[in-house]
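User: I'm curious whether this sequence folds into something compact or stays loose and floppy. Could you predict its structure so I can see for myself?
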Amino acid sequence: MKKCTKKARRKLRVLDKILCLEGEWSPDIRSEESVKPLLQMLQRRGEIKFIYRRCGTKSEFAYYLRQRKYFRDYHIVYLSFHGARGKLRISPEEDVTLAEIADLARGAFKDKLVYFGSCKTLRAVDAQLKEFLKKTGASAVAGYTREVGWVESSAFELLFLYWAAYYKKPAYLLRKLAARYTRLDELMGFKYYTRRGPRVG
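Assistant: Here's the prediction. I'll summarize afterward.
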């Protein structure tokens, strides 16, 4: 019997699944900015499966988090919004804090990696991140501590989601990111925080 090649072994793995909730990037309803094409690219390559929903209000955000029976086996939660320190900006009129997100999630993030694709959200103090993980049961949170540009963050998120779907253990994931994309993650102040505290590659 022939041994599997590295490429063949990779195709035998179980596809990871991502739940993505995305906010409104502009008050102009004609705007077509979206991270959905990143997810579609990964899905078409056979890397992931995903559920995607757009949220224009805090109530919509809460509604989709309550539908957790449909994404119970989804390992990654990708929250793509404008942000501020310790907050998501659901729309130009509504913010939601990490503490509020934890209350809204109500178990929806248990044992999942929560990726905040939003400016400065992970600039929150470590005590807030620790409390978020404790209340939600999430395995880790990741995101940016700085203001990030659309192109740079989109490029990084495509790479991050690709490797996060492949490497379930933080040590392997962060080692890969450090080996290949150190300058990019430093540019945006990337941070990865687990129940054990901040992690680096």
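Summary: Confidence is low (pLDDT under 50) at residues 1-5. Strands lie at 16-22, 48-54, 76-80, 82-84, 87-91, 94-97, 113-117, 140-144, 190-194, 197-199.
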